[in-house]
Design a protein that fits this description.
This protein has 130 residues and is mainly β. The protein is 14% helix and 37% strand. The strands form two sheets. The protein has a six-stranded antiparallel barrel with strand order 1-2-3-8-7-4. Strands 5-6 form a two-stranded antiparallel ribbon. A hairpin with a 4-residue loop joins strand 5 and strand 6. The protein starts with 9 loop residues before the first strand and ends in a 20-residue tail after the last helix.
Length: 130
Amino acid sequence: MSQANRADRHQVELKLVYDDGEHYASGRVRDASDTGLFLETPEPAPVGTVLTLFPLDPEADRLFELHVEVVRVEPDDPDTHRLGGMGLKFLEPDSVIEQIHALIEALERAQHGPRDPLLGVRIPARRGAG
């Protein structure tokens, strides 16, 4: 894929559960865009696999589903200590684009909170706190 065709990537932190039709597993989102995301996971599904993702919308405290297809798999890189995983393409982006935008915006806002030393993720600043 050329850089001209690549959607803007947003660096976000989000853990989610996914279902490949046979079992559930979890992973951590490395980055996301309007067209897909990269999910760090120790056991990526093969290219072409359709998955159902269950991210938690942090603003609404509710679950929603996203259907994706695995379009690439990356192994762990021991030289850079970067975790491997899978590149996922949203299968129904038009039907969930508002949820995707809201999720990305909420996660980017949360990036500005303090990092939890035990969980290694950012803690969202409380609303109204300033």
